[in-house]
Amino acid sequence: MSSNPLPFPQGFLWGAATAAYQIEGSAHAGGRKDSIWDTFARVPGAVADGHNGDVACDHYRRYKQDVALMKSLNMKAYRFSTSWARCMPDGVTPNPEGIAFYSSLVDELLAAGITPWLTLYHWDLPQALEDKGGWANRDTAYRFAEYAAVMHEALGDRVRFWTTLNEPWCSAFLGYAAGIHAPGRQEPRSALAAAHHLLLGHGLAARELRRLDADAALGITLNLTVADPRDPDNDGDRDGARRIDGQFNRIFLDPLFKGEYPADLLADVAHLGLDEAVQAGDLDIISAPLDLLGVNYYHGESVTKDPADLPTSVEADAAAAGESRRPASPFVAADGARSVPRGLPVTGMGWEVQPEGLRRLLNRLHAEYTGPAGIPVYITENGAAYPDVPDEAGFVDDQERLAFFAAHLQAVHGAITDGVDVRGYLAWSLLDNFEWSFGYHQRFGLVRVDYGTQERVPKASALWYSAVAAANAVPD
Ligand code: NCW
Q1: What is the rounded distance in angstroms from the CA atom of residue 392 to the CA atom of residue 337?
Q2: Gap from CA of 67 to ligand 1 centroid (Å)
Q3: Which positions of the chain have pLDDT values less than 50?
Q4: CA pair distance 239, 303, nearest whole angstrom
Q5: pLDDT tens for residues 292-311?
Q6: Given this model, what pLDDT does residue 307 score?
Q7: Interatomic CA distance for residues 47 and 321, integer angstroms
Q8: Can you give the pTM of this predicted structure?
């Protein structure tokens, strides 16, 4: 640690995050049935090199070892997701054997002194529910609330932090508009209906959890961005930035915190029937007070409406994943606006490294949403993929990832100094894992996983992060 460390508030929660389908493997063990990601991974060309989550990091069988690893790295909290298709394989009927896995995981975490943080939905809808229309079907929201209650009955005595959804933007727009995530549909109207039903599912689940447990810390995790016009003096670019901010950030933040969809977004998508999905009373359910907001931040957007000379970020992502299909845009409200590179250094995903955007984002949230609501923010994900090169012992000296974490933690510290109530940081990810349509080619882990042997080796960034967590301070 340097001589001028930046101290974090006492009790700041340091940890790491994962998601069920990305790490567990054992895809059909203990009664688990297909989720939409099992199905999608079988579609030729959907996932790079035909990879899937059948084995992943074999965490389902190695969870004790992984908890010991976290303890050795000074993690104070661990954010994981439960697989709905493991716990309720047909989407509606509890599967005691599947639920028992998470009960054992929670016990192991508590015994290691690590706070469990449970995310109910990280993109792996039971296929049986997709067969009935998936998130485009309003009924799925009610099934989600039932699932939340089942999980609370099993784990609520030991888990305090509950996140309903992870990144509903990805579920709705990458899954139902761009078609590059499961279920792979390219239906803009369904994507907007899915966005609303995801929010409704969140609200119904939160209401149920609140009824069952007055002490629970309830939240939702959004992937949020800062959308800047490429040229602030260009009317088209400014309109584009407004549209992308609307469809990325405010489409979720405004219903959650203000009980309404933004008027400009409703006008942008008037032809796509979002209002038809909204029924009386929905927005009251969606906007019930929460205890925290989870923020996932990876990069900002530089938005232009200039005629296409550069690929959109989603096209660039798909090309980097080796996809042969040309994806549709996830931005159904974009009207020609696209997010384009601005020449900053990029990670292995092609995502620009923009830590100052995180400080601006946190200040904006504090001013417009979480501050007025009087609730804290937790960074529930932040991290970077890089093309790691292990030495003979499997060690990766990942100085770029380490610098990414350092710069973003300095930005978080800056936001706290500005007066934003940030209470914790959960690095993405504990382990290298199945990176969705990129398969195993993109590695976000603090810990390297050798997929041939399942050996875990902490990278240089993990050792650095462990020292940060122990010191509750980040080098300046
Ligand atoms: S893909 C994605 N990620 C990565 C994933 O591993 C994790 O499960 C997610 O929670 C790392 O963190 C999240 N996020 C999608 C970011 C948006 C991509 C936007 C492309 C279109 C413009």
Answers
A1: 47
A2: 24
A3: none
A4: 9
A5: 999 999 999 999 998 765 66
A6: 76
A7: 8
A8: 0.97
Ligand 1 atom closest to the CA of 442, numbered from 1? 6
Q: Which of 167, 301, 315, 352 is catalytic?
A: 167
pLDDT of residue 324: 59
Rounded CA separation 287/210 (Å): 13
Q: Alpha helices of 156-187 — where are they, by DSSP H?
A: 168-169
Secondary structure tally for the chain: helices H, strands E? 19, 15
Sign of the C-alpha dihedral, residues 149, 153, 157, 159? negative
Tell me, what DSSP letter sits at residue 328? P
* Closest C-alpha to ligand 1, atom 22: 314
Q: List residues near ligand 1 (CB under 6 A).
A: 19, 22, 166-167, 170, 223, 296, 298, 313-314, 317, 330, 339, 381, 428, 435-436, 444
Cβ 334 vs Cβ 247: under 8 Å: yes
CA distance 27 to 86: 8
- Which residue in 108, 315, 352, 381 is the catalytic one? 381
Q: What is the pLDDT of residue 386?
A: 98
Which tens digit of pLDDT belongs to each residue from 114-161? 999 999 999 999 999 999 999 999 999 999 999 999 999 999 999 999
DSSP 8-state symbol, 304:
E
**pLDDT in the model for residue 311:** 64
Tell me if residue 381 is catalytic: yes
| Terminal C-alpha separation, the chain | 9
Whose CA is closest to 454, among 3, 6, 23, 19? 23
Contact 244, 160 (CB under 8 A): no
Residue 456's SS3 state is strand
Q: How many angstroms separate the CA atoms of 151 and 254, rounded? A: 28
**Which residue is listed with tokens 């309003």?**
138
Q: Are 407 and 468 in contact (CB under 8 A)?
A: no
| pLDDT at site 84 | 99
pLDDT for res 64: 99
Could you tell me the strand order of the sheet in which 227-229 lies? 227-229, 301-304, 338-339
In 3-state terms, what secondary structure has residue 377?
strand
CA-closest residue to ligand 1 atom 20:
314
Model ipTM value: 0.94
Which atom of ligand 1 is found nearest the CA of 19? 8
What is the predicted pLDDT for the residue at 327? 78
Give the other-Cβ count within 10 Å of 60's Cβ.
21
